[in-house]
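Re: Re: C-alpha coordinate formats

Sure, here are both.
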Amino acid sequence: ICNFWRNYADIEDAWNSLFHIIEWYGDNQDILQPASGPGRWNDPDMLIVSDFGLSHEQSKVQAALWAILAAPFFISCNLRNISEEAKDMLQNPLLIYINQDLRGVQGRLLARKQNFEVWKRPLVNGQYAVAVLNNRTDGAPRSFATTPSLLGISGCRAGYRLYDVLGKLSMGIYALNDTISAKVTPTGVLLLFLNPLC
Protein backbone atom coordinates (compact mmCIF):
# COMPACT_ATOMS: atom_id res chain seq x y z
CA ILE A 1 0.00 0.00 0.00
CA CYS A 2 1.36 3.43 -0.85
CA ASN A 3 -0.06 6.93 -0.57
CA PHE A 4 1.92 8.73 -3.25
CA TRP A 5 3.31 7.79 -6.61
CA ARG A 6 5.62 9.24 -9.21
CA ASN A 7 4.15 10.40 -12.49
CA TYR A 8 5.84 10.97 -15.85
CA ALA A 9 9.61 11.18 -16.51
CA ASP A 10 12.47 11.68 -14.05
CA ILE A 11 13.25 15.32 -13.47
CA GLU A 12 16.63 16.56 -14.64
CA ASP A 13 18.48 19.60 -13.33
CA ALA A 14 17.33 21.85 -16.19
CA TRP A 15 14.52 24.28 -17.00
CA ASN A 16 13.35 22.26 -20.02
CA SER A 17 12.85 19.17 -17.87
CA LEU A 18 10.92 21.10 -15.22
CA PHE A 19 8.77 22.85 -17.81
CA HIS A 20 7.91 19.60 -19.61
CA ILE A 21 6.71 18.08 -16.34
CA ILE A 22 4.53 21.12 -15.63
CA GLU A 23 3.07 20.97 -19.15
CA TRP A 24 2.41 17.23 -18.85
CA TYR A 25 0.52 17.79 -15.60
CA GLY A 26 -1.59 20.44 -17.29
CA ASP A 27 -2.26 18.28 -20.35
CA ASN A 28 -3.28 15.29 -18.22
CA GLN A 29 -5.00 17.03 -15.32
CA ASP A 30 -8.42 15.51 -16.03
CA ILE A 31 -6.97 12.10 -15.18
CA LEU A 32 -4.42 13.12 -12.54
CA GLN A 33 -6.39 15.64 -10.49
CA PRO A 34 -9.29 13.36 -9.43
CA ALA A 35 -6.80 10.67 -8.31
CA SER A 36 -5.18 13.04 -5.82
CA GLY A 37 -6.37 13.90 -2.32
CA PRO A 38 -5.61 13.35 1.36
CA GLY A 39 -3.58 10.17 1.65
CA ARG A 40 -3.12 9.80 -2.13
CA TRP A 41 -0.74 12.20 -3.83
CA ASN A 42 0.63 12.64 -7.34
CA ASP A 43 4.41 13.16 -7.25
CA PRO A 44 6.00 15.11 -10.12
CA ASP A 45 9.48 14.34 -8.66
CA MET A 46 11.89 16.07 -6.29
CA LEU A 47 12.56 19.78 -5.91
CA ILE A 48 15.74 20.79 -7.72
CA VAL A 49 15.84 24.15 -5.96
CA SER A 50 19.42 25.21 -5.13
CA ASP A 51 20.97 22.56 -7.37
CA PHE A 52 22.76 23.91 -10.46
CA GLY A 53 20.38 23.93 -13.42
CA LEU A 54 17.78 26.54 -12.44
CA SER A 55 17.99 30.26 -11.88
CA HIS A 56 16.40 31.52 -8.68
CA GLU A 57 13.33 32.71 -10.62
CA GLN A 58 12.98 29.25 -12.18
CA SER A 59 13.33 27.68 -8.73
CA LYS A 60 10.39 29.82 -7.64
CA VAL A 61 8.38 28.34 -10.51
CA GLN A 62 8.95 24.82 -9.25
CA ALA A 63 8.16 25.69 -5.64
CA ALA A 64 4.98 27.53 -6.64
CA LEU A 65 3.69 24.86 -9.03
CA TRP A 66 4.51 22.01 -6.64
CA ALA A 67 2.49 23.86 -3.98
CA ILE A 68 -0.41 24.29 -6.41
CA LEU A 69 -0.22 20.61 -7.39
CA ALA A 70 -0.24 19.44 -3.73
CA ALA A 71 3.02 17.66 -4.56
CA PRO A 72 5.46 16.29 -1.98
CA PHE A 73 8.24 18.75 -1.12
CA PHE A 74 11.33 16.51 -1.30
CA ILE A 75 14.49 18.63 -1.37
CA SER A 76 17.30 17.23 -3.54
CA CYS A 77 20.09 19.74 -2.93
CA ASN A 78 22.99 19.34 -0.51
CA LEU A 79 21.69 21.12 2.58
CA ARG A 80 25.26 21.91 3.68
CA ASN A 81 25.59 24.12 0.59
CA ILE A 82 22.04 25.43 0.10
CA SER A 83 21.92 29.09 -0.87
CA GLU A 84 20.40 31.59 1.57
CA GLU A 85 17.78 32.67 -0.99
CA ALA A 86 16.74 29.05 -1.59
CA LYS A 87 16.59 28.33 2.15
CA ASP A 88 14.50 31.45 2.69
CA MET A 89 12.08 30.38 -0.04
CA LEU A 90 11.73 26.76 1.10
CA GLN A 91 11.08 27.91 4.69
CA ASN A 92 8.40 30.40 3.61
CA PRO A 93 5.49 29.64 5.98
CA LEU A 94 2.77 30.66 3.51
CA LEU A 95 4.28 28.54 0.72
CA ILE A 96 4.33 25.54 3.09
CA TYR A 97 0.78 26.33 4.24
CA ILE A 98 -0.45 26.20 0.63
CA ASN A 99 1.45 23.00 -0.13
CA GLN A 100 0.21 21.27 3.04
CA ASP A 101 -3.40 22.50 2.83
CA LEU A 102 -5.72 20.17 4.74
CA ARG A 103 -8.31 19.88 1.96
CA GLY A 104 -5.64 18.26 -0.19
CA VAL A 105 -7.21 19.31 -3.49
CA GLN A 106 -4.74 19.33 -6.38
CA GLY A 107 -4.82 22.58 -8.33
CA ARG A 108 -5.68 22.87 -12.01
CA LEU A 109 -4.49 24.76 -15.05
CA LEU A 110 -7.13 27.38 -15.88
CA ALA A 111 -5.67 28.93 -19.02
CA ARG A 112 -2.72 29.15 -21.38
CA LYS A 113 -2.65 32.45 -23.22
CA GLN A 114 0.10 34.67 -24.68
CA ASN A 115 2.87 32.72 -22.93
CA PHE A 116 1.12 32.96 -19.57
CA GLU A 117 -0.25 29.97 -17.70
CA VAL A 118 -2.70 30.44 -14.83
CA TRP A 119 -3.10 27.70 -12.22
CA LYS A 120 -5.56 27.76 -9.30
CA ARG A 121 -5.91 25.67 -6.15
CA PRO A 122 -8.87 25.84 -3.73
CA LEU A 123 -7.83 25.73 -0.08
CA VAL A 124 -9.56 25.46 3.29
CA ASN A 125 -11.88 28.19 4.59
CA GLY A 126 -12.66 29.62 1.15
CA GLN A 127 -9.02 30.51 0.48
CA TYR A 128 -7.27 30.12 -2.88
CA ALA A 129 -3.76 29.97 -4.28
CA VAL A 130 -3.12 31.16 -7.84
CA ALA A 131 0.11 30.79 -9.79
CA VAL A 132 0.82 32.87 -12.90
CA LEU A 133 3.69 31.42 -14.94
CA ASN A 134 5.45 33.37 -17.70
CA ASN A 135 6.84 30.60 -19.90
CA ARG A 136 8.77 32.87 -22.27
CA THR A 137 12.53 32.39 -22.08
CA ASP A 138 13.47 35.84 -23.39
CA GLY A 139 12.62 39.49 -23.01
CA ALA A 140 11.72 41.69 -20.07
CA PRO A 141 9.14 41.04 -17.35
CA ARG A 142 5.64 41.04 -18.86
CA SER A 143 2.49 42.64 -17.49
CA PHE A 144 -0.37 40.42 -16.43
CA ALA A 145 -3.82 41.49 -15.32
CA THR A 146 -6.93 39.66 -14.14
CA THR A 147 -9.70 39.87 -11.53
CA PRO A 148 -10.88 37.39 -8.90
CA SER A 149 -14.06 36.89 -10.95
CA LEU A 150 -12.09 36.03 -14.09
CA LEU A 151 -10.21 33.46 -12.02
CA GLY A 152 -13.52 31.80 -11.17
CA ILE A 153 -13.47 33.09 -7.60
CA SER A 154 -16.84 34.33 -6.36
CA GLY A 155 -17.40 32.86 -2.91
CA CYS A 156 -16.95 36.06 -0.89
CA ARG A 157 -18.75 39.19 -2.13
CA ALA A 158 -16.88 41.33 0.42
CA GLY A 159 -13.63 40.60 -1.41
CA TYR A 160 -10.25 39.04 -0.70
CA ARG A 161 -6.99 40.10 0.87
CA LEU A 162 -4.16 39.22 -1.52
CA TYR A 163 -0.58 38.24 -0.75
CA ASP A 164 2.40 37.84 -3.04
CA VAL A 165 3.62 34.61 -1.43
CA LEU A 166 7.19 34.44 -2.74
CA GLY A 167 7.67 38.21 -2.51
CA LYS A 168 6.30 38.13 1.08
CA LEU A 169 4.14 41.17 0.36
CA SER A 170 0.57 42.10 1.18
CA MET A 171 -1.09 43.43 -1.99
CA GLY A 172 -4.19 44.81 -0.29
CA ILE A 173 -7.90 44.08 -0.55
CA TYR A 174 -9.59 43.31 -3.88
CA ALA A 175 -13.28 43.16 -4.71
CA LEU A 176 -14.41 40.47 -7.14
CA ASN A 177 -14.10 42.76 -10.18
CA ASP A 178 -11.01 44.72 -9.12
CA THR A 179 -8.03 44.38 -11.43
CA ILE A 180 -5.00 42.49 -10.12
CA SER A 181 -1.90 43.69 -11.97
CA ALA A 182 1.66 42.43 -11.80
CA LYS A 183 4.79 41.90 -13.87
CA VAL A 184 6.15 38.38 -14.23
CA THR A 185 9.73 37.66 -15.27
CA PRO A 186 10.55 35.25 -18.14
CA THR A 187 10.55 31.67 -16.83
CA GLY A 188 9.24 33.20 -13.62
CA VAL A 189 6.08 33.04 -11.53
CA LEU A 190 3.74 35.07 -9.37
CA LEU A 191 2.17 33.03 -6.57
CA LEU A 192 -0.88 34.66 -5.00
CA PHE A 193 -2.73 33.73 -1.82
CA LEU A 194 -6.34 34.97 -1.60
CA ASN A 195 -7.88 35.12 1.86
CA PRO A 196 -11.62 35.90 1.96
CA LEU A 197 -12.93 38.78 4.07
CA CYS A 198 -16.19 36.92 4.73
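Second one below.
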Amino acid sequence: EFELLTAIAFWYFRENKADYAVMEVGMGGRFDATNVVMPVVSVITNVAMDHMQYLGNTLQEIAREKAGIIKKGIPVVTAAQHVALKELKKDAHNKKARIYFYGRDFEIDTRNKWEQGQVVVVKRKGMPKELEKSMLFVPFIGAHQAVNAAVAAMALTILMKEDGRINENDLREGLARARWQGRFEIHHAGGKTVVLDGAHNEAGAEALQEALQEQYPDKRRIFVFSSLQDKTTETIIQMLVRKGDKVYACAAPTPRTRTPEEICEMIDRQKIRAEHKIAGSVADALEKAVKEADENDIVLVCGSLYILGDAIRWLRKQELAE
Protein backbone atom coordinates (compact mmCIF):
# COMPACT_ATOMS: atom_id res chain seq x y z
CA GLU A 1 0.00 0.00 0.00
CA PHE A 2 2.71 2.50 0.97
CA GLU A 3 4.69 1.90 -2.23
CA LEU A 4 1.53 2.45 -4.30
CA LEU A 5 0.70 5.69 -2.48
CA THR A 6 4.29 6.88 -2.94
CA ALA A 7 4.13 6.23 -6.68
CA ILE A 8 0.79 8.09 -6.90
CA ALA A 9 2.35 11.02 -5.00
CA PHE A 10 5.28 11.20 -7.45
CA TRP A 11 2.83 11.19 -10.36
CA TYR A 12 0.63 13.85 -8.72
CA PHE A 13 3.56 16.20 -8.05
CA ARG A 14 4.76 15.83 -11.64
CA GLU A 15 1.29 16.46 -13.12
CA ASN A 16 0.93 19.59 -10.99
CA LYS A 17 4.47 20.76 -11.81
CA ALA A 18 5.41 21.18 -8.14
CA ASP A 19 8.56 23.27 -7.67
CA TYR A 20 9.46 21.36 -4.52
CA ALA A 21 7.93 18.38 -2.75
CA VAL A 22 8.53 17.43 0.87
CA MET A 23 8.75 13.64 0.87
CA GLU A 24 8.50 12.10 4.34
CA VAL A 25 9.77 8.54 4.67
CA GLY A 26 7.34 5.92 5.91
CA MET A 27 9.83 4.08 8.10
CA GLY A 28 13.56 4.31 8.58
CA GLY A 29 14.95 5.66 5.32
CA ARG A 30 17.51 3.35 3.73
CA PHE A 31 14.97 0.89 2.24
CA ASP A 32 11.95 3.22 2.23
CA ALA A 33 9.95 3.65 -0.97
CA THR A 34 10.56 7.41 -0.93
CA ASN A 35 14.32 6.91 -1.00
CA VAL A 36 14.45 6.66 -4.80
CA VAL A 37 14.47 10.47 -4.98
CA MET A 38 17.59 12.61 -5.21
CA PRO A 39 16.81 15.41 -2.73
CA VAL A 40 18.01 19.01 -2.74
CA VAL A 41 18.35 18.74 1.05
CA SER A 42 17.88 15.79 3.43
CA VAL A 43 16.19 16.36 6.80
CA ILE A 44 16.35 14.04 9.82
CA THR A 45 14.44 15.71 12.64
CA ASN A 46 15.46 13.27 15.37
CA VAL A 47 16.10 9.61 16.07
CA ALA A 48 13.94 7.69 18.54
CA MET A 49 13.19 4.11 19.51
CA ASP A 50 10.42 3.00 17.14
CA HIS A 51 9.80 0.15 14.65
CA MET A 52 12.57 -1.77 16.39
CA GLN A 53 11.61 -5.08 14.75
CA TYR A 54 12.58 -3.54 11.39
CA LEU A 55 15.17 -0.86 12.17
CA GLY A 56 17.23 -2.20 15.08
CA ASN A 57 17.25 -2.28 18.86
CA THR A 58 19.58 0.65 19.56
CA LEU A 59 19.60 4.31 18.62
CA GLN A 60 22.82 3.72 16.68
CA GLU A 61 21.21 1.02 14.53
CA ILE A 62 18.09 3.11 13.89
CA ALA A 63 20.25 6.17 13.08
CA ARG A 64 22.13 4.13 10.47
CA GLU A 65 18.82 3.24 8.79
CA LYS A 66 17.67 6.87 8.87
CA ALA A 67 21.04 8.00 7.49
CA GLY A 68 20.13 6.11 4.31
CA ILE A 69 18.43 9.28 3.00
CA ILE A 70 21.74 11.19 3.10
CA LYS A 71 23.10 11.41 -0.45
CA LYS A 72 26.57 12.12 -1.77
CA GLY A 73 27.26 15.87 -1.77
CA ILE A 74 23.69 16.79 -0.69
CA PRO A 75 23.36 18.88 2.52
CA VAL A 76 21.58 17.36 5.52
CA VAL A 77 19.85 19.11 8.44
CA THR A 78 19.17 17.41 11.76
CA ALA A 79 18.23 17.96 15.40
CA ALA A 80 19.41 14.48 16.42
CA GLN A 81 21.55 14.35 19.54
CA HIS A 82 24.28 12.26 21.20
CA VAL A 83 24.91 8.75 19.78
CA ALA A 84 22.41 9.23 16.94
CA LEU A 85 24.08 12.47 15.84
CA LYS A 86 27.47 10.74 15.93
CA GLU A 87 26.19 8.10 13.47
CA LEU A 88 24.66 10.72 11.16
CA LYS A 89 27.87 12.79 11.17
CA LYS A 90 29.91 9.71 10.29
CA ASP A 91 27.61 8.86 7.37
CA ALA A 92 27.57 12.47 6.12
CA HIS A 93 31.36 12.61 6.27
CA ASN A 94 31.67 9.39 4.24
CA LYS A 95 29.31 10.79 1.61
CA LYS A 96 30.96 14.25 1.62
CA ALA A 97 27.58 15.79 2.55
CA ARG A 98 27.62 19.02 4.58
CA ILE A 99 25.72 18.42 7.84
CA TYR A 100 23.94 21.24 9.69
CA PHE A 101 23.01 20.21 13.20
CA TYR A 102 21.02 21.78 16.02
CA GLY A 103 23.13 23.40 18.72
CA ARG A 104 26.04 24.24 16.40
CA ASP A 105 24.73 25.59 13.09
CA PHE A 106 21.29 26.71 14.26
CA GLU A 107 19.35 26.98 17.52
CA ILE A 108 16.39 28.57 19.27
CA ASP A 109 17.30 31.98 20.67
CA THR A 110 13.99 32.69 22.48
CA ARG A 111 10.59 31.03 22.74
CA ASN A 112 7.32 32.48 24.05
CA LYS A 113 4.20 30.33 24.24
CA TRP A 114 0.69 31.39 23.25
CA GLU A 115 -2.55 29.46 23.67
CA GLN A 116 -2.59 28.34 20.04
CA GLY A 117 1.14 28.22 19.40
CA GLN A 118 4.38 30.03 20.15
CA VAL A 119 6.67 32.78 18.91
CA VAL A 120 10.15 31.43 18.25
CA VAL A 121 13.35 33.26 17.31
CA VAL A 122 15.63 30.95 15.32
CA LYS A 123 19.32 31.81 15.09
CA ARG A 124 21.49 30.45 12.25
CA LYS A 125 25.27 30.70 12.23
CA GLY A 126 27.49 31.39 9.26
CA MET A 127 24.65 32.89 7.23
CA PRO A 128 24.33 36.30 5.55
CA LYS A 129 23.26 38.94 8.08
CA GLU A 130 19.65 39.04 6.83
CA LEU A 131 19.34 35.29 7.50
CA GLU A 132 21.04 35.13 10.91
CA LYS A 133 17.81 35.47 12.92
CA SER A 134 14.13 34.88 12.16
CA MET A 135 11.15 35.61 14.40
CA LEU A 136 8.53 33.00 13.54
CA PHE A 137 5.01 32.26 14.69
CA VAL A 138 4.72 28.50 15.06
CA PRO A 139 1.06 27.36 15.34
CA PHE A 140 2.00 24.25 17.35
CA ILE A 141 2.54 23.72 21.06
CA GLY A 142 5.59 22.37 22.87
CA ALA A 143 9.35 22.82 22.91
CA HIS A 144 9.76 19.92 20.46
CA GLN A 145 7.67 21.80 17.88
CA ALA A 146 9.92 24.83 18.26
CA VAL A 147 12.90 22.58 17.45
CA ASN A 148 11.01 21.10 14.48
CA ALA A 149 10.35 24.65 13.23
CA ALA A 150 14.04 25.49 13.60
CA VAL A 151 14.94 22.41 11.53
CA ALA A 152 12.46 23.46 8.82
CA ALA A 153 13.83 27.03 8.88
CA MET A 154 17.40 25.77 8.45
CA ALA A 155 16.43 23.51 5.55
CA LEU A 156 14.58 26.35 3.83
CA THR A 157 17.51 28.71 4.42
CA ILE A 158 19.75 26.32 2.48
CA LEU A 159 17.25 26.49 -0.40
CA MET A 160 17.14 30.31 -0.20
CA LYS A 161 20.86 30.45 -0.93
CA GLU A 162 20.31 28.42 -4.12
CA ASP A 163 16.91 29.67 -5.29
CA GLY A 164 16.18 33.41 -5.39
CA ARG A 165 12.43 32.76 -5.60
CA ILE A 166 12.37 31.68 -1.93
CA ASN A 167 12.71 34.34 0.77
CA GLU A 168 12.25 35.03 4.47
CA ASN A 169 8.60 36.02 4.00
CA ASP A 170 7.88 32.57 2.52
CA LEU A 171 9.39 31.00 5.63
CA ARG A 172 7.33 33.17 8.02
CA GLU A 173 4.08 32.82 6.09
CA GLY A 174 4.50 29.11 5.41
CA LEU A 175 5.02 28.29 9.08
CA ALA A 176 2.23 30.59 10.29
CA ARG A 177 -0.25 28.91 7.92
CA ALA A 178 0.87 25.36 8.67
CA ARG A 179 -1.73 22.93 9.97
CA TRP A 180 -0.90 19.53 11.45
CA GLN A 181 -3.82 17.38 12.48
CA GLY A 182 -3.27 15.19 15.49
CA ARG A 183 -0.31 17.06 16.96
CA PHE A 184 -1.53 18.72 20.17
CA GLU A 185 -4.59 19.77 18.21
CA ILE A 186 -6.98 21.66 20.52
CA HIS A 187 -10.76 21.37 20.10
CA HIS A 188 -13.74 22.30 22.22
CA ALA A 189 -16.88 20.19 22.68
CA GLY A 190 -19.68 21.11 25.05
CA GLY A 191 -17.45 23.82 26.51
CA LYS A 192 -14.76 21.23 27.36
CA THR A 193 -11.18 21.23 26.10
CA VAL A 194 -10.28 18.22 23.96
CA VAL A 195 -6.67 17.66 22.86
CA LEU A 196 -5.80 15.24 20.04
CA ASP A 197 -2.24 13.98 19.84
CA GLY A 198 -0.80 11.14 17.80
CA ALA A 199 1.73 10.15 20.49
CA HIS A 200 2.17 6.42 19.92
CA ASN A 201 5.79 5.77 20.94
CA GLU A 202 8.09 6.80 23.78
CA ALA A 203 9.47 9.87 22.01
CA GLY A 204 5.95 11.06 21.18
CA ALA A 205 4.79 10.44 24.74
CA GLU A 206 7.72 12.41 26.14
CA ALA A 207 6.98 15.36 23.83
CA LEU A 208 3.28 15.22 24.73
CA GLN A 209 4.05 15.11 28.46
CA GLU A 210 6.28 18.20 28.17
CA ALA A 211 3.61 20.08 26.18
CA LEU A 212 0.91 19.16 28.72
CA GLN A 213 3.09 20.33 31.60
CA GLU A 214 3.65 23.61 29.80
CA GLN A 215 0.07 24.21 28.65
CA TYR A 216 -2.15 22.50 31.26
CA PRO A 217 0.03 21.77 34.32
CA ASP A 218 -2.82 21.62 36.85
CA LYS A 219 -5.53 19.91 34.81
CA ARG A 220 -6.71 16.35 35.44
CA ARG A 221 -6.41 14.22 32.32
CA ILE A 222 -9.31 12.12 31.07
CA PHE A 223 -7.84 9.86 28.39
CA VAL A 224 -9.39 8.30 25.34
CA PHE A 225 -6.60 5.82 24.81
CA SER A 226 -5.71 3.07 22.38
CA SER A 227 -2.45 1.43 21.33
CA LEU A 228 -1.08 -1.13 18.89
CA GLN A 229 0.50 -4.47 19.71
CA ASP A 230 3.94 -3.50 18.41
CA LYS A 231 4.21 -0.40 20.61
CA THR A 232 5.74 -0.08 24.09
CA THR A 233 2.27 0.63 25.47
CA GLU A 234 3.09 0.08 29.13
CA THR A 235 5.93 2.62 29.05
CA ILE A 236 3.70 5.17 27.27
CA ILE A 237 1.04 4.72 29.96
CA GLN A 238 3.66 5.18 32.66
CA MET A 239 4.85 8.43 31.04
CA LEU A 240 1.42 10.02 30.58
CA VAL A 241 -1.11 8.69 33.09
CA ARG A 242 -0.91 10.05 36.65
CA LYS A 243 -2.62 9.28 39.93
CA GLY A 244 -6.17 10.66 39.83
CA ASP A 245 -6.42 10.68 36.03
CA LYS A 246 -9.01 8.55 34.25
CA VAL A 247 -8.62 6.36 31.15
CA TYR A 248 -11.31 5.20 28.72
CA ALA A 249 -9.61 2.35 26.87
CA CYS A 250 -10.84 1.53 23.37
CA ALA A 251 -9.75 -0.51 20.38
CA ALA A 252 -8.13 1.08 17.33
CA PRO A 253 -9.73 0.26 13.93
CA THR A 254 -6.97 -2.14 12.84
CA PRO A 255 -6.18 -5.83 13.45
CA ARG A 256 -2.93 -4.63 15.08
CA THR A 257 -4.78 -3.03 18.00
CA ARG A 258 -4.35 -4.00 21.62
CA THR A 259 -7.63 -4.86 23.31
CA PRO A 260 -9.09 -2.41 25.86
CA GLU A 261 -8.79 -5.21 28.43
CA GLU A 262 -5.02 -5.45 27.82
CA ILE A 263 -4.66 -1.69 28.29
CA CYS A 264 -6.58 -1.76 31.58
CA GLU A 265 -4.42 -4.64 32.83
CA MET A 266 -1.30 -2.59 32.04
CA ILE A 267 -2.63 0.37 34.06
CA ASP A 268 -3.26 -1.96 36.99
CA ARG A 269 0.26 -3.40 36.71
CA GLN A 270 1.73 0.09 36.85
CA LYS A 271 -0.11 0.74 40.15
CA ILE A 272 -0.79 4.30 39.05
CA ARG A 273 -4.13 4.46 40.92
CA ALA A 274 -5.89 5.93 37.90
CA GLU A 275 -9.47 4.89 37.24
CA HIS A 276 -10.00 3.06 33.96
CA LYS A 277 -12.99 1.84 31.97
CA ILE A 278 -13.53 -0.08 28.74
CA ALA A 279 -15.31 1.82 25.95
CA GLY A 280 -17.04 0.19 22.99
CA SER A 281 -15.59 2.66 20.46
CA VAL A 282 -13.68 5.91 20.13
CA ALA A 283 -16.96 7.83 19.84
CA ASP A 284 -18.34 6.09 22.94
CA ALA A 285 -15.17 6.91 24.90
CA LEU A 286 -15.23 10.55 23.79
CA GLU A 287 -18.89 10.98 24.63
CA LYS A 288 -18.35 9.66 28.14
CA ALA A 289 -15.12 11.59 28.69
CA VAL A 290 -16.54 14.94 27.54
CA LYS A 291 -19.72 14.44 29.60
CA GLU A 292 -17.65 13.72 32.70
CA ALA A 293 -15.06 16.49 32.29
CA ASP A 294 -15.37 19.80 34.12
CA GLU A 295 -13.40 23.06 33.94
CA ASN A 296 -10.50 21.50 35.86
CA ASP A 297 -10.10 18.66 33.34
CA ILE A 298 -8.91 18.16 29.79
CA VAL A 299 -9.93 15.28 27.55
CA LEU A 300 -6.88 13.79 25.86
CA VAL A 301 -7.13 11.49 22.82
CA CYS A 302 -3.80 9.73 22.26
CA GLY A 303 -1.89 6.44 22.04
CA SER A 304 -2.45 5.71 18.35
CA LEU A 305 -2.77 7.68 15.12
CA TYR A 306 -5.41 5.15 14.05
CA ILE A 307 -8.06 6.55 16.42
CA LEU A 308 -7.71 10.21 15.42
CA GLY A 309 -9.95 9.91 12.35
CA ASP A 310 -12.87 8.66 14.43
CA ALA A 311 -12.17 11.34 17.06
CA ILE A 312 -12.15 14.15 14.47
CA ARG A 313 -15.40 12.92 12.93
CA TRP A 314 -17.08 12.86 16.36
CA LEU A 315 -15.81 16.34 17.21
CA ARG A 316 -17.02 17.79 13.90
CA LYS A 317 -20.53 16.48 14.62
CA GLN A 318 -20.45 18.17 18.03
CA GLU A 319 -19.19 21.44 16.56
CA LEU A 320 -21.98 21.39 13.96
CA ALA A 321 -24.60 20.64 16.62
CA GLU A 322 -23.37 23.56 18.74
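The first strand starts at residue 42 and ends at 44. The chain has a mean pLDDT of 92.
- S.
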